[in-house]
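Hi W.,

Here's what went into the run:
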Amino acid sequence: MQVFGLLGNPVGHSLSPPMHEAAYDELGMDARYVTFEPAPDDFADAVEGARALGIAGLNVTIPFKRDVLALVDPDPLADRIGAVNTVDVPTMTGYNTDAVGVVRAFRHHDVALTGTAVVVGAGGAGRAAAFALADEGMRVAIANRTVDRAEALAADVPNASAHPLSALGDLLADADVLVNATSVGMEDDESPVPAAALHADLAVLDAVYTPLETRLLREAAAAGATTIDGAWMLLYQGVAAFERWTGRDAPVDSMNAALRARL
Ligand code: NAP
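Here's what came out:
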């Protein structure tokens, strides 16, 4: 039996086990996906233990996505982003499939990744989105509550600029793609983007997936924009991890159904 797993703290409500196990069932694989919650001081031992036990692949989530960089050989994209969420354990190679998830979520909805992208947020998800969209050839405007963080990120990303949230109205007028990579919209029915700035030529991905229908996505739909909920990004980061670990095409529809059944 192959064992895959997730290292994070906390991981109690993770949707990754049902999503990945749906793929194993669909493909008739003898495999399981298990969550582990090491204390921060035990994280390095946990990764080494996973290797010693023959665990095939690991996802890594909060608060370990940066710590794991020191323990694996990151691929060039993960190295530039400065975070790893997927480890191929036999080779100890680290990947950032959150970035892949952003691109594949847009592709699934037939959105052309050309022109200008606005990324709201400069934390982990914002970094992944900014690098991913810049690598597609887009100009990337990064808006963040803490402007220093946007500036630091824009300095690392090709064709990127940094802005305060108050610039969003102007930035969105000419934008083709918008990503909300802040946590705004999770706790309260709030949006980080003024509704009046949304328009029909925009494709909007909200990284938030609880709730699936955020205020931003409701307002974007009302403005005639293409809307993509955060479960698409979550799905495609899992699809990309599965494909890295197994070398097989992932059964996307089964994984999507398992994920959405729990949201
Ligand atoms: P993070 O590293 O903690 O970054 C949080 C970001 O949100 C920062 O840019 C922060 O701005 C901003 N922010 C927080 N509260 C804010 C507020 N009240 N007003 C304006 N900005 C605010 O978190 P993360 O890991 O990037 O995650 C961000 C969101 O993406 C979360 O909802 C997470 O669940 C989601 N996510 C989804 C996926 C997926 O697969 N769908 C993957 C990863 C993350 P400051 O810099 O000013 O603090």
